[in-house]
Amino acid sequence: MSFVTVNIPVLETERLILRAFEDKDTSAYAAIRSDDEVTTFIGGSMPRYQVWRSMTSIIGQWAWRGFSFFCVEEKASGQCIGSVGPYYPDGWPEPEIGWTLAKSAQGKGYATEAGRAALTFAYQELGWTTAISVIDPENHASQNVAKKLGAHKEQTGASMWDFTADIWRHLPPEEFLKSN
Amino acid sequence: MSFVTVNIPVLETERLILRALRVDDLDGFFSIYADADHARFVSRVADRAKAFDKMCSLMGHWVLRGYGRFAVEEKSTRRFIGHVGASYLDDAREPELNYSFVPEAGGRGLATEACFAALRYLYEVHGWQTAISEINTMNARSLALANRMGAVKESERDADEFGTLEIWRHLPPEEFLQYCEVAA
Which tens digits make up the pLDDT trace of B86-127? Predict the structure, then answer.
């Protein structure tokens, strides 16, 4: 039997593994995506069956776009604590690095650690020459992550889909890779 | 760098290749959902962007489940004529053999040929012991196909705006494989 092979990269940081979603992540990721507080700034909460479907869609994008969100696994617990990665859906201003973490995983520097790995991957493996993050003006936790990564706010009130948000511009590849 | 690797098999029948979906299948894929009957009986996809997202989901299904939907390509024309294979969504009661074809594929037994190959693969390679197909009670072509495969209607369920779905139970592995030989 012959095969078509799809390869989805696995990245490792000090405390995290960034990898493709697996079926076993469904409960943990569904809990994150149904948490009103966590999802306030990313389109609102979703029921479990939709989260599962969204996981399949995220994985499928790896096959054809060559990048997509990773599942963020905490090494210590083996649990899925969120998603991070390069992301560029139709109607988005440009390719971005996005992150979403469980409430319980916030405040530990995980988002910065995961975001740094994802941006490094985008620059080194995907050959991106620039990158943004789209962040709600009220989402202060996320803005802090962007700042820690060295990004600066470039534009306020940019419109995409049916909402507006701020555009944060990351450091260019050489500068970013040197400082990280 | 290490990778998670998914191998999607390529199956071959007399007139068809069953293989992983590709980006260039999108036009054909979208045309399935543009068909009025399909939109009425099965599912709807609003635009090409949504169709791409749906294709991504079918691809991602392989990673989460180890099996999923094949693109069906007609050997003689190299054209995409539909998709067929296993679907087992998180809220599904049990795994299902699922199939959808472009309207032009009808009338030549190609859909039946693809479905036989896909179910055979699920029984032989994945060790499925049983399989269902859920079919809209108004979808005459699809009901006829299930009937040709030797499946029998088991029950019905309400599916909101799509009306009533019939649950058809396929022949169990041994009987089905015998039936395949007779049919061939």
Answer: 999 999 999 999 999 998 998 899 999 999 999 999 999 999
Q: A8, B6: Cβ pair inside 8 Å? A: yes
Question: Strand, coil or helix: what is B132?
Answer: strand
Any CB–CB contact under 8 A between B20 and chain A? yes
List CB contacts (< 8 A) between A8 and chain B.
Answer: 3-6, 63
In chain B, residues with a C-beta closer than 8 Å to the C-beta of A56 are 56-61, 63-64
Token output for A120: 């490094």
Distance CA A74, CA B22 (A): 33
Q: Give the predicted TM-score (pTM) of the model.
A: 0.93
Q: Does B144 touch chain A (CB under 8 A)?
A: no
Over the stretch B11-66, which tens digit does the pLDDT of each residue have?
999 999 999 999 999 999 999 998 888 888 888 888 888 999 999 999 999 999 99
| B1 contacts in chain A (CB < 8 Å) | 9-11, 125
User: Hey, which bits of chain A come out as E strands?
Assistant: 2-12, 16-19, 70-74, 80-87, 96-101, 132-135, 152-160, 163-169
Task: Return the number of other C-beta atoms located less than 10 Å from residue A8's C-beta.
Answer: 19
- The reply to whether A1 touches chain B by the CB within 8 Å rule is yes
Where do we find the tokens 């990778």? B3
Instruction: Give contacts of A58 with chain B, Cβ < 8 Å.
Output: 56, 60
Cβ atoms within 10 Å of B107's Cβ, excluding its own: 9
Q: Give me the residue label for tokens 């994802």.
A: A118
ipTM of the complex as predicted:
0.91
Do A3 and B10 contact (CB within 8 A), yes or no? yes
Compute the half-sphere exposure of residue A152: CA atoms within 13 Å on the CB side of its CA. Answer: 4
